[in-house]
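note to self — DONT lose this again. spent like an hour looking for the file last time. sequence + predicted structure for the chain T wanted, 503 res
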Amino acid sequence: MRARCYDFRLSVLGGVAIGLLAFAVPAVATVTSGAAALATSLDDAWRACNAPQLSSADRIAHCTTIIESGRAKPVALAQALMARGFGYVIQKDFDRALADFDAAIRNNPKLAAAYYYRAAIQMGRDPKGALADINKAISLNPRDPDYFRERSSLYAKRKEYPRAIADLTTAIGLAKKPTREYFLRGAAYEDIGQRDKAIADFQASLVLDPDNDVLRRHLVHLGGEIPKAVQLPSGLCSANDITHEQRIAGCTASIESGTLTGWPLKVAYCNRGYALTELGDYDRVITDSDALIAINPQAGCGYLNRARAWYYKRDLDRAIADYTQAITLEPRLHEAYASRGTAYFDRREFGKAIADYNAAISIDSDIPMYFSDRGNTRYVLGDYRSAIADYNRAIEIDPDYSQAYARRGWAFLCLDELANAEADFDKALKLAPGDAYAQSGRAEVYQRQNKPVPEERSTGPSFDNLSRGQEGSSMTRFAVPGLGAVAIPSFAISSCSDVIVAC
């Protein structure tokens, strides 16, 4: 069983959304007068430059249009520079980002966010300068909890725990949902040996984020009790190493007891939905998910389970819609990204599939199937070297992942690297004797080497027959904390002749 976890110690530049629109002002009001066509163009560029969701390359391009137009007033120019700087941050081009934040501050010395982002870059380079920037940001905007949280991390690194705790206490009072702030203050209390206060803060954080199984386990390790509001359903519903039928019976008993509300009730429905999916009772999964969503429209796992049911019923449009809603509700639900990538793959929308695998990997980079499935997509596109790199990573994570060896063998085969291909097929068959996909790959190697092919060798399966919609042993499980395991389909890729760009 695998747990989804969150790293609350990341700085703002480690992946926290920028929320650019909070600082945005209408472009038409902030550029000097000019031709109507140009104003429209700048207006479009401005909206794109400050859009909350945009690729870093597109953000940089649109912000550059504003910056180089020569028509933006200082306040708008500073905003565009800051937004472009964040685009560079996403690309890990920190020197350019720093230059843009410097320029933003020169154009608008009262732009608190620019100091904040510059501080985040400087934390490792110039801690004193970073602290000065955070102090300035706070003086300009003392109502932003992120600023106090960021300064607390500087104090914590300097082991100035009383100051760190004071800042986190302020941040808790300012934040709408202080999940991270409670966690970090609990960590600070734990570091200075104040166990009871640490437990209290970890409990408060868990109530706000009950799906954080890592925090749940750590709280138990410290001797703290799990708050009643976020306790797992008792009995078989949440037990490990039981049959799906037992889980369904246990969750049904918990649901029908009438004693569960809130998060525990969500868990019971989601665990039952998972078990029903594993048994192939997809219509009941949909009914169960509908019931949960009616009770709790914010239950991401309800949409995730229903999406999986739609997927196996081959209704990809509904599956993608539900995966998307699950992601909207729980942006770190990597299982939903990976599963949506599966659906996009089946629709041959490979660019979207790769983007979803990238997102899943960015959240949890320790799941080998994500790399292998991204490798499959790259393989189908004819990008064999990139596919091999993904299979390599999958094998690093799980050296006994037989499918990754077989898939890598096919990529080597398409590059005519027969020795490497044969070695991978041999390894795959050692791990999974009789695997038809590895057998067909080794048969192809033998044919190219003019060796006799044993009669039991099968032909390579086609793309369509081996799409991710297949059920059975290709399913890979890992746990959604408190919600049981989630299965992501993992499929065998096709022969070289079936790729979009043939080898």
